[in-house]
Design brief:
This protein is α/β, with parallel strands linked by helices. It contains 20 helices and 17 strands. The strands form 3 sheets. The chain has a 7-stranded mixed beta sheet, sandwiched between helices. A 6-stranded parallel beta sheet has the order 2-1-3-4-6-5, sandwiched between helices. A 4-stranded parallel beta sheet has the order 8-7-10-11. Helix 2 links the parallel strand 1 and strand 2. Helix 1 packs parallel to helix 7, helix 9 crosses helix 12 and helix 13 runs parallel beside helix 20. The longest helix is centred in the N-terminal third of the chain and has 15 residues. The termini are far apart. The model has no long low-confidence stretch (mean pLDDT 95).
Length: 514
């Protein structure tokens, strides 16, 4: 058995059965092994940032790692934006990155790069295999590293000769390490604070704490103590809709966030971090909470928040508390496209158990308030701030759900251009994805950031934020990728197109003119 065969067999034995790939010459023996060994689903992406973003979306829904196949250091570099987002989302991914044959590397061929150095910036685990006999062992350890709770990025660098040489041995799958235990003293300290200062306390959820079970436990604590519950703005995955809390996130806007958090004297972190601004702004602090607020850590991001919240419920003897009813499901909105109207329309029409990939950026910051009465759904957010993850995350999520759930992409036009090729993969795989492109013809978020930093934009600056010269034709772009598409000039037309798309088995794109 050569190294490539041992690698594929080890991945499959370790539970990794999906590979998102954009291969090159150095990876050909691995590609051949994927063809010769049954069991691995291979999904082609036309650019590496699509590949890594798909692996992120896959993990968020399947809750297990996929592997990526990237071509040498430059291929890894192309995928680093969405690996940054995946690391912030704490998604588990195993990157297989091809490299020069070990004997060829000293000759500094054109694609030679500091692949390990680049990988370190977006990975918690990095290793270069140097012997075919050790590749299976290395692969098993990579999968174990990616499975560290709640998920990590593991990058295995694969020189071409380690892949093609004989002597491969299938690695023994490792056991996923249990998360570090919750500190009983932290539970007691938080419980004591809540008994004394419940009304002045915010319980801030992130990571798995923002899913259904964590929300229910946090609500019991809140009802027993008078505390408030919110989600961190950069939480990657929130369980939403009927039967879930009517959670709001901390606002993105710095001044709004400071105003929202001003009344809280205590903030309990449940897998979240102390809230800070995305950037530094003149005259504003870096932190968003009050200067005299006390921060209490119930659980760190690498710990199990459900275990922590169960302990807190027990310490407080908090009784069962029903999740509040959000009221009747809304009707679709009509007229010109507005954030409120689009959110209401999505809530009115989405199929039960849908997945929403939200990269609506500035247009969608108020979506939550108008979509609480939707059917149960999973709402996925950009966690790392590197725009361009919405389309590939939607694509990977559809595959993670085994094409059994409708995925709705709420997608800003500017950031969609970063990962447009995702549409091609959606068409190739016939994925049930409805993408709503929010076409306002500009990088609207940066216009707001100009004001935030106190800069005064002139004609040259504004021209760099304008996408209207020439205008993007999203119907034409989607069609060129094999995706059926139509333009909507108002919410009435958008609603009709959404309903029609939900009856299709494959992808559909709606270009909504803002």
């Amino acid at each position: 058995m050569n190294g490539a065969h041992s690698l594929v067999k080890t991945l499959l034995a370790s539970g990794v059965d999906t590979c998102f790939a954009n291969p090159g010459t150095s990876e050909m023996h691995f590609v051949a092994a994927l063809d010769q060994i049954p069991g691995m689903k291979c999904v082609l992406g036309l650019q590496e940032n699509i590949v890594t973003g798909m692996a992120d979306g896959y993990f968020r829904i399947a809750r297990k790692p996929a592997c990526t196949l990237l071509h040498c250091g430059p291929g890894l570099a192309n995928g680093m934006g969405n690996l940054h987002n995946a690391r912030r989302a704490r998604s588990g991914i195993v990157n297989i990155v091809g490299d020069q044959a070990t004997y060829h590397r000293p000759f500094d061929a054109p694609l030679t790069a500091d692949t390990a150095g680049m990988a370190q910036t977006v990975s918690q685990w990095v290793r270069t295999s140097v012997r075919s006999e050790e590749l299976g062992r290395d692969a098993a350890e990579a999968v174990s590293a990616a499975q560290v709770y709640p998920g990590q990025i593991a990058t295995l660098i694969l020189p071409a000769d380690v892949s093609w040489n004989e002597g491969g041995v299938v690695g023994t799958p490792g056991r996923a390490a249990l998360p570090p235990p919750i500190d009983g003293n932290a539970i007691e300290s938080v419980a004591r604070n809540l008994r004394a200062h419940g009304a002045d306390t915010l319980i801030l959820l992130a990571g798995p704490a923002a899913l259904s079970e964590g929300q229910g436990l946090a609500w019991r604590v809140a009802q027993a103590t008078g505390a408030s519950v919110m989600a961190d703005f950069v939480t990657s995955h929130v369980a939403r809709g009927r039967g879930r809390l009517q959670l709001e996130r901390i606002p993105y806007n710095m001044e709004q966030a400071i105003k929202t958090l001003a009344r809280f004297k205590h903030i309990v972190l449940v897998n979240s971090k102390p809230p800070v601004g995305f950037f530094g702004y003149p005259g504003l602090p870096s932190t968003q909470y009050a200067s005299d607020a006390q921060i209490h850590v119930l659980s760190r991001p690498d710990q199990d928040p459900v275990e922590a919240l169960k302990g807190l419920v027990q310490a407080l003897n908090a009784p069962h508390a029903d999740i509040p009813d959000p009221g009747p499901r809304p009707d679709p909105a009509t007229g010109a496209a507005t954030p409120e109207g689009l959110a209401q329309t999505v809530a009115a029409l989405m199929p039960e158990n849908s997945i929403v990939s939200d990269e609506s950026v500035s247009f969608g910051r108020g979506f939550y308030k108008f979509s609480h009465a939707a059917p149960p759904n999973d709402w996925l957010h950009l966690a790392g701030g590197a725009i361009g993850d919405g389309l590939p995350v939607a694509t990977g999520a559809a595959i993670g759900a085994q094409k059994q759930r409708r995925v709705i992409g709420l997608q800003a036009d500017g950031s969609a251009m970063y990962s447009l090729q995702s549409l091609w993969t959606q068409a190739r795989e016939q994925l049930p994805v409805t993408t709503i492109i929010l076409n306002n013809g500009k990088y609207n978020i940066l216009i707001g950031e100009y004001k935030g930093v106190g800069a005064v934009p002139g004609d040259t600056a504004m021209s760099m934020l304008d996408l209207g010269n020439p205008s993007l034709n999203w119907v034409g772009l989607a069609n060129s990728m094999g995706v059926e598409a139509a333009r909507a000039s108002d919410l009435d037309a958008c609603a009709d197109l959404m309903k029609a798309s939900f009856g299709k088995s494959g992808p559909f794109l709606i270009e909504l003119m803002i």
